[in-house]
Specification:
Length: about 725
């Protein structure tokens, strides 16, 4: 029998060798992606090359090249492609401070992505928009200003936290590093120095930015995703940096990205960004379309999201760019597609065996619930009004209480079932009543359709009012036409809670009602008055398909909240610098010297934790966390650093964290790696970030607030 299998194996091997001998080199899966790409590139006409460099790349039948679309979305689950598991928005994921969980969520998303691509191919669909294997996520821009409407798509205001979350996303999407075929292509965006405003992004120039801010704040996450995460793609941003559009910047795309960081993947433009080079009313950087195309390709923008690169042949004929320069870009695209197994038979690529049954399956729903649970931040809990017992007479009000689409965020998919906050509460307290007609915002000339008397009458005999307010993805997001007071073009002009909600909360407080305020938003809302009028405040973000269930579990004590803020919650508008000023002075917990309402890294629990004396030894930070309360819970140990002699530097900078579960009355040891790279700091002598010898303050605690930290003096 053994001899039979040996003979059979030799026969199959011989047949395989014979088959490969008949193949052209680019068709041979035993060759490297580089070798295959080089051979295929040599067989393409200039017009075919140009077509492959557009985001919607057509099939080239004479060479057996399948259609491919570089544009798919997976911001917090597969987006814009029907049924999918919808996780909390990325800002909510950042609030978990759990990068291992984030990687699991995006591994689930990438599994659903492969299933959807397999279905589309089996159906021989021609339009592969949002059905292909290249995903333009994660958004790792630093959320420097809470007025930016797309901040909800980021992982907060801190470079280190953003780096950890971003690397986790890339690993989840792209799959195991030792796999022959990559699961998907992830994309780090928007490179670089990009975080609003939305309304002028096609003409805005970031200028007079100190080098320190560039390297210390805006670039670290991109560098981490390139060098540690090995991200496949980078998307260049719309705006100009130092006078040049980012998609035509030699400094960003060549000097830094490729020469200094060694990036060998591909660069894609944001959609329509190449047109911004030359079209009237935009950057005004170049005069013609052909000049724009040529500059983008020469600078290293390999894929265009738009419809301009199909004219690439004309630019070559005019001598503005050479075909060999086009080939440099094309090689990167072809290599990426070969790494995916895009040209190879289904049986050769394990990812092509994934079926429909994984889409929004139970295990993925469980992950969505866990992520939503971990994302919720308890900001205030006066008199321990929470958790509720379930026996109270409860009145729920606020538009967001029954709005399932709000929970989906933006760039979203569509789950089979969404549990709203109202549904979650009623499933535990069926006696709960709901008062409809409480809007999020009113237009300038619009009147509230429900009277004060009606509101107070509804609340007359209840024990607690759960007011579910904040804003929604219909008010903040990418280039939106929103004209309500306080909003402009997808951004906010101020960060205060909309006046109509503030007014109603004031009425309830004056009537002596016990109010639990649930804030749904993509980022910080100024809630200083509400910290007085409300007993408890919860930050629920846009919680995904399980957001309502998770919130109800927290309200009724079935889950002990442990989320921490990934952004500073400022007290009011006066604490914000000019929105269009990209300098970091006065921004985020690192450079803001005022007193915020709630600081970065802050979040309460239904139990209490203490930290024993912190130790730093052998490149590790060690501390024991004690749960001194009566409930099991989780805490996030945070490690910050400050250089003692750096008067111009940040107040502190996050350098490590660990989320740990501790049972009531017990303790747990936490160990956080802290090697020489953790001492990377701005060196003004070399104008660079590097491990910098000197004396530092090492601060360890449960938020960035001074009273929550222990401080050690250490020398490096």
């Amino acid at each position: 029998m053994k001899r039979y299998f040996v003979i059979l194996s030799v026969m199959f091997a011989s047949a395989s060798m014979s088959t490969y001998a008949q193949m052209l080199p680019y068709q041979n899966p035993d060759l490297s992606p580089e070798e295959r790409a080089r051979d295929l590139c040599s067989r393409l006409t200039l017009e075919e090359k140009a077509s492959l460099m557009e985001n919607a790349s057509p099939a080239i039948e004479r060479l057996g090249i399948p259609a491919f679309n570089w544009w798919s979305e997976a911001l917090h689950g597969i987006g814009r492609n029907g049924l999918a598991t919808v996780f909390p928005i990325t800002m909510g994921m950042a609030a978990t401070w759990d990068d291992a969980l984030v990687q699991q969520c995006f591994d689930a998303a990438s599994t659903e992505a492969r299933a959807k691509n397999n279905i589309a191919r089996a159906r021989m669909e021609k339009d592969l928009y949002c059905k292909s294997l290249s995903f333009w996520t994660p958004n790792i821009n630093i959320f420097r200003d809470p007025r930016w409407g797309r901040g909800q798509e980021t992982y907060g205001e801190d470079p280190y936290l953003t780096s950890r979350m971003g690397v986790a996303v890339v690993k989840g999407l792209q799959g195991p590093a030792d796999s022959k075929y990559q699961k998907l292509l992830a994309c780090a965006k928007h490179y670089a120095v990009h975080s609003g405003p939305e309304w002028n992004r096609h003409s805005f120039n970031v200028e007079d930015l100190p080098l320190r801010d560039l390297w210390e704040t805006y670039l670290p996450a991109f560098q981490a995703l390139v060098q540690e995460g090995h991200v496949a793609e980078v998307m260049c941003a719309y705006q100009r940096y130092e006078g040049k559009p980012c998609c035509g910047s030699d400094r960003l795309l060549q000097q830094i990205l490729r020469n200094e960081w060694g990036f060998d993947g591909l660069v894609t433009s944001d959609c329509g960004a190449i047109d911004d080079f030359w079209k009237p009313g935009r950057h005004g950087y170049l005069g013609t379309r052909d000049e724009a195309i040529s500059q983008a390709v020469i600078s290293g923008t390999d894929v265009e999201c738009g419809n301009t690169y199909h004219k690439l042949g004309e630019a070559v004929k005019k001598g503005l760019v050479t075909e060999s320069q086009v080939d440099v870009s094309l090689m990167r695209l072809l290599k990426a597609r070969f790494k995916l197994g895009d040209f190879d038979e289904d049986r050769q690529v394990s990812w092509k065996q994934i079926g429909y049954e994984v889409i929004d399956c139970q295990s993925h729903r469980d992950l969505a619930l866990k992520a939503a649970q971990e994302s919720i931040v308890l900001l205030q809990n006066k008199d321990n009004v929470l958790p509720l017992s379930g026996d109270e007479k409860i009145l729920v009000m606020g538009k967001n209480a029954q709005d399932e689409e709000m929970q989906w965020g933006n760039y979203n998919g569509f789950p089979a079932q969404t549990i709203t906050i109202l549904q979650g509460i009623k499933s535990r307290a069926p006696q709960t009543s709901f008062l409809d007609g409480i809007p999020l915002v009113l237009a300038e000339d619009e009147e509230l359709k429900i009277s004060r008397e009606e509101i107070l009458n509804a609340a007359k005999d209840v024990d607690v009012v759960v007011f579910v307010g904040g804003i929604s993805p219909r008010l903040e997001g990418e280039e939106m036409r929103v004209t309500y007071p306080g909003f402009k073009g997808g951004d906010r002009t101020d960060i205060e809670l909309p006046q109509v909600q503030r007014r109603i909360l004031g009425w309830l407080s004056e009537a002596g009602k016990k109010v639990v305020f649930v804030n749904c938003s993509g980022s910080a809302i100024a809630l200083k008055p509400e910290s007085s009028t409300c007993k408890a405040i919860l930050q629920a973000w846009y919680g995904g398909q399980a957001g309502g269930e998770a919130l109800a579990q927290v309200l009724f004590g079935e889950y002990n909240p442990a989320g921490k803020l990934p952004v500073t919650f400022y007290a009011d508008n006066t604490q914000l610098p000019d929105f269009e000023d990209y300098r970091m002075k006065g921004r985020t917990y690192r450079y803001f010297d005022g007193k915020p309402l709630w600081p970065f890294g802050y979040g309460l629990s239904y139990t209490q934790f203490t930290l024993d004396k912190v130790q730093y030894k052998n490149n590790k930070v060690r501390v024991r966390v004690k749960n001194t309360g009566a409930r099991d819970g989780q805490e996030v140990v945070q490690v910050y650093l400050k250089r003692a002699d750096d008067v111009d530097g940040p107040r502190m900078a996050l350098r490590g964290f660990r989320r740990v579960a501790v049972k009531a009355g017990r303790s747990a040891s936490v160990e956080i790696p802290f090697d020489e790279n953790s001492f990377t700091w701005w060196d003004k002598k070399s104008n660079s970030m590097r491990p910098l010898p000197g004396r530092y303050q090492l601060m360890v605690g449960t938020s960035s607030r001074a009273e929550d930290l222990q401080t050690l003096e250490v020398d490096f």
